[in-house]
Fold this sequence. Notes:
This protein is mainly α. The protein has one domain. It is 82% helix and 0% strand. The chain contains twelve helices and no strands. The protein is globular.
Amino acid sequence: MTNILAIAHKELKSYFASPIAYIVIGFSAILYGWFFINLLYYFDRISMQAGAGFGGPQSVNVNEQLISPLFLNVSVILLFTLPLVTMRTYSEEKRSGTIELLLTSPLTDLQIVFGKFLGGLTLYGAMLAVTLVHMGFLFAFGNPEWRPVLSGYLGLLLMGGCFLSLGLFISSLTRNQIVAGMVTFAVFLLFWVINWIATFMGPTTQNILNYLSITEHLNDFTRGVVDTKHLVYYFSFIAFSLFLTVRAVDSERWRG
């Protein structure tokens, strides 16, 4: 565990020693703020319309009409930001030659992979922490339910973990971080839109593609439902991607 934390600390330091961490956190904060303001404006408008009608202001729900769509829009931010986080994890090590030093150190492939994953997940956690300011605003001036908010953040954390683990695997396959970033974005986008393709398929294929969609499993989390089938999907996705990364690192060790 000490070795994993040491790798994670090294990885986190490398993010903040370069502009990557600041660009990723700043860009995600700006996009999230833009989504928040627009959804807040929309929610305010429908609240006034409901207040003027027969339903009264009780007919609108801040969790359903503001927070849930806000969490779903975060998946758009992840498409653009997380490839920046993972694209250099192994590619830059290979390009600079430091991968040889890392592989000859008294560390197992599993420790290296988990350490890098934990470092990226910590940076992603910092990205999510920035959004707590907006949630604090809603709790200060509104009355949202806290359970859907908590489960929504859990869903976002698991989704981010899936993207990070997959990005690590793609980065371990190439020496060029630009190539790694572009391929990672393309694969992320495929998992993001795969349920769109499902609408043109038969029932069986449609169910399979919907299950493979990484965003489809987030919907229940944003509504406060933590279903075991979603947990199994996310944890299996992370475990399988990290397993592939370990195998890729192991093959690099033998080639070296």
